[in-house]
Automatic annotation (TrEMBL):
The chain crosses the membrane at residues 79-96, 103-121, 141-164, 176-196, 202-220. InterPro entries: PAP2/HPO, PAP2/HPO_sf. It comes from the Bacteria. This is Phosphatase PAP2 family protein. Keywords: Membrane, Transmembrane, Transmembrane helix. It holds the Pfam family PAP2. Residues 103-217 form the Phosphatidic acid phosphatase type 2/haloperoxidase domain.
Length: 239
């Protein structure tokens, strides 16, 4: 009995996907650099906005112990950077079973680059975290950008990209998009609620993480397209 197979062609033309990824990455980079400049020069309106958000959430966290413990669990367990990296490790094992060696290296490299960039930026900007006389949480290292927000964005973005790249059913991609969006927004909220980050730290993590995923996807498509062209030219010379 003949079993129909899925078409090999992607839902979006490869050239269009590369162009879209390149443009998205460029826009996200510009937005992140603009935010970085405002943070570095301590732009007054941005500082006021950060302070307003922190001052509004901190009394809620102090006054609601049960809810704050739950938010702690979300931030330090469910959406912790190491949990996010474990998700990528599972994705890498799935790719290894499929012998997708280049993709495994690409995913690992993108994740590692995100970690390196955030640590370099934290050291370079050297921004203090919010300080409270009655803190509900403590975090180490400098504030900008948020490592939790960046890691969650990179992880969820890469997972969705991998599912799209390997033609997983649309329902699976939609589910991953919803779970990813909830995780990215949720982890940002937990860092603000716990009073360990400013709003601009979280937005910076989102922007940089999204830029990394877009740039990585574009670069991977460009490299694989070039390799496919080289293979085609080599086969033509052998005919």
């Amino acid at each position: 009995m003949h079993v129909p197979t899925r078409p090999a062609a992607p839902a979006v033309p490869p050239r269009l996907a590369r162009t879209t990824g390149k443009r998205a990455g460029a826009v996200l980079c510009v937005l992140f650099l603009a935010l970085l400049a405002l943070v570095a020069c301590e732009w007054g309106p941005l500082v006021s906005l950060d302070r307003w958000g922190a001052d509004g959430l901190h009394p809620v966290a102090v006054g609601h112990h049960g809810w704050t413990r739950f938010v702690h669990w979300l931030s330090d367990r469910l959406w912790d950077p190491w949990t996010m990296r474990a998700v990528l490790a599972v994705a890498a094992l799935w790719l290894l079973r499929r012998r997708e060696w280049l993709l495994v290296a690409w995913v690992a490299g993108t994740s590692a680059l995100g970690t390196v960039l955030q640590q370099l930026l934290k050291a370079a900007v050297d921004r203090d975290r919010p300080r409270w006389p009655d803190p509900v949480a403590v975090a180490s290292y400098q504030a900008f950008p948020s490592g939790h927000a960046l890691t969650a964005t990179v992880t969820c973005g890469l997972v969705v990209w991998l599912l799209w790249l390997r033609r997983v059913r649309p329902a699976g991609i939609r589910t991953a998009l919803v779970v990813g969006a909830v995780s990215v927004v949720g982890v940002g909220f937990t860092r603000l609620y716990l009073g360990v980050h400013w709003l601009s730290d979280v937005v910076g993590g989102w922007l940089l993480g999204a830029a990394l995923v877009a740039g990585s996807a574009w670069a991977y498509d460009a490299v694989t397209a070039r390799r496919a062209t080289a293979r085609g030219e080599l086969e033509d010379t052998r005919k």
